[in-house]
């Protein structure tokens, strides 16, 4: 069980304390009222509020308080600072807790610190380490919400008889308040599509969703900042936190090196098998990554990984027209309503956090080996960043239906690695490769980079050629730039 820094909380005592100190919305200017629609202002509730010390959760607390609810704030201490004591320049949780206490003291809301370090290590961190060892790319923020914030924490306060648990997530939960049993609560997109966090909440269960309130679901980030100033919050000028939820100021590479270690391996060019350099271990890289390769003549992208032989394949042609990524399979499916969607319905899909969606086809299949159902998904556009271990969340309109984990394999449209590169990867003695080849500067060519929705965008010349060919009822294939360069060189040698 988690440890508390304070004695067990008494709901009746806290209710009395809040009732005697402040009145609800009348205390504030009338312009606060329009922001309370996601705070269930219709009746007085007992709400456990997760407070991180950041602006979002602090504004969420103040809105719930303004709506007249009896609030108790909880700070979750999940930092495993004992394991990282040599990395800290300062303890980040101490600064966060200081801000959380200051926010609560403004309105005399009680604050408790809940220790979930052991639970976090067992249910999130260990899973992340195992996934990276297997060459997959997990999403710790999805797991943190499912297993810790709305998992272990809810279990810890289960005896305290709160009506709801609230946080500063940008999402909206629509509850059914009819007396009919079996009516499901619904997770919907927030008003702010850029900040929307339904992707991170898509793997929750219906039992968890029924107990949640997200006061910021009806508010944009800009309005949240204005409210922080209006409430004169002590953390009103704090920047938003970035990166993985548990790392704080630790670099991800340091975390991986500490818990998985390093093992030198070779970097090969996918198209030629050329030996380009060395890496510290395949687990430091994910598909589509361009940072950290330290190769000249780039940009270079990680396109495949050989987990067994600790080889990373890279290419400078990752965003080319003939390298499609739009078909994949999804397992570990969880539906917020408890039931899978109708396969005849038009669905949308997110394969990462952000405002971008894809239209998609969705077909359920029975798992052959484990017996677990999987889904076959085809996106409407290419996405070069599909990585095994990541979550794919599914939507119908503004409703989030649920999510699953992208599996290791998709169809044969993955990035092609040449046979020579595959043979070199299987070599037991890589020292026979000698020194890395001298990388030639890539010939100038129009860049093809991903568009804002995560797919690929053809350059103007290729796009116009493709459209013209389509009108004539024929297909166009674009030859790899490296092949064209070699052909050009042979032509000049002949003449």
TrEMBL record:
All copies of domain tRNA-specific 2-thiouridylase MnmA-like C-terminal, residue ranges: 326-406
InterPro entries associated with the record: MnmA-like (IPR004506), MnmA-like_C (IPR046885), MnmA-like_central (IPR046884), MnmA-like_central_sf (IPR023382), Rossmann-like_a/b/a_fold (IPR014729), tRNA_2-thiouridylase_MnmA (IPR051305)
Catalyzed reactions per annotation: 5-taurinomethyluridine(34) in tRNA + S-sulfanyl-L-cysteinyl-[protein] + AH2 + ATP = 5-taurinomethyl-2-thiouridine(34) in tRNA + L-cysteinyl-[protein] + A + AMP + diphosphate + H(+)
Keywords, comma-separated and alphabetical: ATP-binding, Disulfide bond, Nucleotide-binding, RNA-binding, Transferase, tRNA processing, tRNA-binding
Limits of the tRNA-specific 2-thiouridylase MnmA-like central domain: 254-316
GO biological-process terms attached to the record: tRNA processing
Enzyme nomenclature, EC number: 2.8.1.14
GO molecular function, one term: tRNA binding
Pfam families, A to Z: tRNA_Me_trans, tRNA_Me_trans_C, tRNA_Me_trans_M
HAMAP family attached to this UniProt entry: tRNA_thiouridyl_MnmA (MF_00144)
Family of the protein in this entry: Belongs to the MnmA/TRMU family.
Record function comment: Catalyzes the 2-thiolation of uridine at the wobble position (U34) of mitochondrial tRNA(Lys), tRNA(Glu) and tRNA(Gln). Required for the formation of 5-taurinomethyl-2-thiouridine (tm5s2U) of mitochondrial tRNA(Lys), tRNA(Glu), and tRNA(Gln) at the wobble position. ATP is required to activate the C2 atom of the wobble base.
Protein's name according to its UniProt entry: tRNA-5-taurinomethyluridine 2-sulfurtransferase
């Amino acid at each position: 069980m988690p440890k508390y820094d304070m004695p067990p909380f008494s709901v009746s005592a806290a209710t009395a304390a809040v009732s005697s100190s402040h009145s609800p919305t009348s205390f504030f200017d009338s312009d606060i009222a329009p922001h309370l629609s996601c705070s269930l202002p219709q009746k007085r509730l007992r709400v456990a509020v997760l407070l991180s010390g950041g602006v979002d959760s602090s504004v969420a607390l103040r809105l719930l308080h303004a709506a007249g609810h009896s609030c108790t704030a909880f700070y979750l201490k999940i930092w495993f600072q004992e394991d990282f004591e040599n990395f800290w320049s300062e303890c980040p949780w101490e600064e966060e807790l200081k801000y959380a206490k200051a926010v609560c003291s403004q309105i005399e809301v009680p604050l408790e610190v809940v220790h979930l370090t052991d639970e976090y290590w067992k249910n999130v961190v260990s899973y992340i380490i195992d996934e990276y060892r297997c060459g997959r790319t997990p999403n710790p923020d999805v797991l943190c919400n499912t297993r810790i914030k709305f998992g272990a924490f809810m279990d810890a306060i289960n005896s305290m008889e709160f009506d709801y648990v609230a946080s500063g997530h940008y999402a909206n939960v629509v509850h059914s308040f009819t007396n009919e049993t079996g009516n499901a609560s619904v997770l919907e997109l927030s008003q702010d599509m850029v900040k929307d966090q339904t992707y991170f909440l898509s793997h929750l269960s219906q039992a968890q969703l029924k107990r949640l309130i997200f006061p910021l679901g009806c508010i944009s980030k800009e309005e949240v900042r204005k409210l922080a100033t209006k409430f004169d919050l002590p953390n009103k000028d704090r920047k938003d936190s970035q990166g993985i939820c548990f790392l704080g100021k630790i670099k991800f590479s340091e975390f991986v090196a500490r818990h998985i270690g390093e093992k030198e391996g070779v970097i090969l060019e996918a198209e030629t098998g050329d030996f380009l350099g060395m890496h510290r271990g395949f687990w430091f890289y994910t598909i589509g990554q361009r940072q950290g390769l330290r190769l000249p003549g780039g940009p270079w992208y990680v396109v495949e990984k050989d987990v067994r032989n600790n080889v990373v394949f890279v290419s400078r042609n990752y965003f080319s027209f003939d390298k499609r990524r739009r078909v994949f399979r999804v397992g570990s499916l969880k539906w917020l309503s408890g039931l899978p969607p109708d396969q005849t319905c038009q669905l949308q899909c997110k394969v990462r956090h952000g405002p971008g969606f894809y239209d998609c086809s969705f077909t359920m299949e029975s798992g052959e080996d484990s017996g677990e159902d999987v889904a076959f998904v085809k996106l409407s556009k290419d996405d070069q960043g599909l990585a095994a271990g990541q979550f794919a969340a599914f939507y119908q309109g503004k409703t989030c239906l649920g999510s699953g984990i992208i599996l290791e394999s998709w169809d044969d449209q993955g990035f092609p690695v040449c046979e020579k590169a595959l043979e070199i990867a299987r070599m037991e003695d890589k020292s026979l490769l000698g020194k890395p080849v001298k990388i030639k500067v890539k010939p100038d060519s129009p860049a093809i980079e991903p568009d804002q929705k995560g797919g690929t965008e053809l350059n103007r010349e290729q796009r116009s050629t493709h459209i013209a060919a389509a009108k004539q009822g024929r297909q166009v294939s674009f030859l790899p730039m490296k092949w064209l360069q070699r052909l050009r060189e042979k032509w000049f040698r002949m003449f």
